[in-house]
Design brief:
The protein is an alpha/beta fold and 293 residues long. The protein folds into two domains: 2-28 and 88-287, Rossmann fold (3-Layer(aba) Sandwich), CATH 3.40.50; 43-76, no CATH class. The chain has helices at 8-24, 61-67, 100-118, 144-151, 162-167, 191-200, 213-216, 241-264, 278-287, and strands at 43-49, 71-76, 81-88, 121-127, 176-183, 204-211, 222-227, 234-239, 268-273. It starts with 7 loop residues before the first helix and ends in a 6-residue tail after the last helix.
Length: 293
Amino acid sequence: MPETLLDPSFLKRLEYLDFVAKKIAGGEFRGERRSASRGHALEFREHRTYAPGDDIRYMDWNVYLRLDELQLKEFEAEQRINIAVVVDVSDSMDFGDHNKLRYALRMAAALGYIGLSHFESVSLAAHPNGSSRRTPPFRGRPQRKSLLQHLASFGPSGRGRLAETLQGLPRPRRGSLLVALISDFYDEEGFEKGLESIRGRRARGLMIHLVDPKEMDPGASGTVRLADRETGAERVLALDEEVRRRYRREFDLHLARVERYCLDAEFGFARVETSIPFDASVLSILRRGRILR
């Protein structure tokens, strides 16, 4: 399954995505280089008094009209952004006609491939076993093949606590951090505890919630034996219409909880059905500005 990440046909799709990403960003990723330098920036920081020779393009005329003072706007120039791509490889991801894990690896490959063209660094981590399946930062286009080879080694890996994986992500030496997590957000402790660690370190978040059509409507009926893919616990259940209705309600609540948390945390968020081609999903995320500023 993972070896398809290195197939020539798949690499061509990544090249196409990288090309389109440049078009979407107008030739460069906005927000790519943000530093403490002043003058030619995107985010307002403070005012200072005008001095002869200053660039009047940054004059705040509203302040002048209100206070009769010449004040210049100062901005934060762009700084380098580092991406940590975290792939959920827990057993619950190895599921579905379109297989959530295969889909997640393809999306991770696309994000990493594009990231190496435009950002300071890209690192990878698997959840669970984040510490043993974590890479040093990849930098630049020449390391694309190494990134894909590492991703191709990711396979189903039991269960674990999301908080442990995310808390263990290293801090970049310079620049800011964007954590891109691709997951179904099933966690015994609750996904919130894991995502809090991203908020606590003031990193940006891009949460990609994968959903397989079979999860939305299992379709089965009658007496069935259900087994938890991660714990192995089994349960015999009579699946009638009432039980299916309750299941769909609980599943909808899970979807709403994940989305609401991400919106409240000001994370980029996308829910992706695995029946949709992965490259179309990546382009949709890029166009909505979840990676581009």
